[in-house]
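**Sequence, structure tokens**
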Amino acid sequence: MLIVSDDEYSIDDPHVDACYFNWRGDASMDVRWAQFFTSKGQIPVRVKREVFGSDEAILAVLAHELFEVQALRELFAASAGIMTATRLYGLVERGIVGNLHDQAWELADQLVDAMRRQS
């Protein structure tokens, strides 16, 4: 499910173009994979409207989010569907070299480069 950000789903952080999970608990608490899903069994990805002004931004942002979600799915599956919020943040927080967030941007950059070469 893709939700284009508007007032109801605003993304306040100017450094964030999209998000798929919004944790509102203590860092030491457990996060369950099931919490990522809506009642319809979907993981909503909220995307700032501005992203849709550029094909490169669309590709990069969606590839990034999907990379993270897929990798998290595998990590949650390997840990019985549970991990601490601290671990989750360490995997997806910006500024941590080599984490999922960093790897997702590497993939996004590669895809945009490939897109440019095809043009």
Q: What stands out?
A: Residues 2-118 form one domain. The helical segments are 55-78, 85-92, 100-118. The radius of gyration is 15 Å.
